[in-house]
Specification:
alpha/beta; 33% helix; 9 helices; globular; single chain
């Protein structure tokens, strides 16, 4: 599985790189970032996959979150995939910021014109994970996943459905019940179809209600987040976890919004959560 190096940068004693490969799952070139901490020079290290939110790319977290300093201290590799396929040629894929390019929702679409290229669930779980484990000094037995907003939704759902793959999980301001919010209804309707029954397999709250479980969750939510009331459904997620006995630490922070100043403020504690869990 050959990769092309786009750029590499010395960073806190390690290396922040950006790469491209030909994806057989997507059928197009896909870009991703990897931060290798200094400990990776000595052997395999725990690896965290970070799933970004709507409109973001493989560079967003790497540039804005300030996570490499912490990852270098803890010996964690960070992987940052893009949020969707790009340059697909699909009509209408760039017409809306919350559907199509930049808005993959970390699922495998079943409806046209999306089904062939929008397969981000399989891409993350299968192809990219295998590629990283083959090409970088990452420990397959110590892999975690986290994300923000749409990516928080992706991290929660992929972990709940694939507990053997992801040993630690966390999220920043996740879309926690996408079947019940405008972003989710728009994306699920387009990618999965008008029948709402299949949507539950991609809704963290519904998955937990149906019996799925994940390792102890850490979720941070800003109370100054303009999307909180309409899009995120954090209160519902908290209630569902409590009723089901799913371990959850949900921290609400006055004054913090939905952006990367919020993420940068708490990313150290998220990485420490993963480091403790992965060992």
């Amino acid at each position: 599985m050959a990769i092309t190096t786009l750029s590499e940068h010395a960073c806190f004693g390690g290396t922040q790189g950006f790469y491209q490969h030909e994806s057989s799952v997507i059928g197009l070139p896909m870009r991703f970032g990897v931060y290798r901490p200094p400990q990776a020079a000595l052997g395999p290290v725990p690896v965290l996959f970070y799933l970004a939110g709507l409109t973001c790319t493989e560079e967003t977290f790497a540039i804005k979150a300030g996570a490499q300093r912490v990852a270098a201290r803890l010996g964690l590799m960070l992987v940052t995939p893009d949020t969707s396929p790009r340059d697909t040629g699909v009509a209408g894929a760039s017409d809306a910021w919350d559907l199509g390019h930049g808005a993959g929702f970390y699922l495998d679409a079943t409806q046209e014109p999306w089904a062939q290229r929008w397969r981000m669930g399989s891409y993350i779980n299968e192809e990219l994970r295998a590629l990283v484990l083959a090409e970088f000094p990452a420990d397959a037995a110590r892999a975690g996943i986290f994300g923000h907003s749409m990516g928080g939704h992706g991290a929660l759902t992929l972990a709940l459905k694939n507990p053997a793959l992801w040993r630690s999980v966390s999220a920043f301001a996740p879309i926690a019940a996408p079947s019940l919010c405008p972003w989710g209804e728009k994306a699920f309707g387009a990618y999965l179809g008008a029948d709402r029954a299949p949507w539950a397999a991609h809704d963290a709250s519904a998955l937990i209600e149906a019996g799925a479980r994940a390792p102890a969750l850490l979720v941070d939510q800003g109370l100054g987040d303009k999307f909180l009331a309409e899009q995120l459904n954090i209160d519902r997620f908290e209630a569902v976890c409590a009723a089901a006995g799913q371990p959850l630490t949900l921290r609400r922070h006055a004054g913090y919004d939905h952006g990367y100043f919020f993420i940068a403020s708490f990313v150290e504690e998220h990485l420490e959560h993963h480091a403790r869990t992965l060992g």
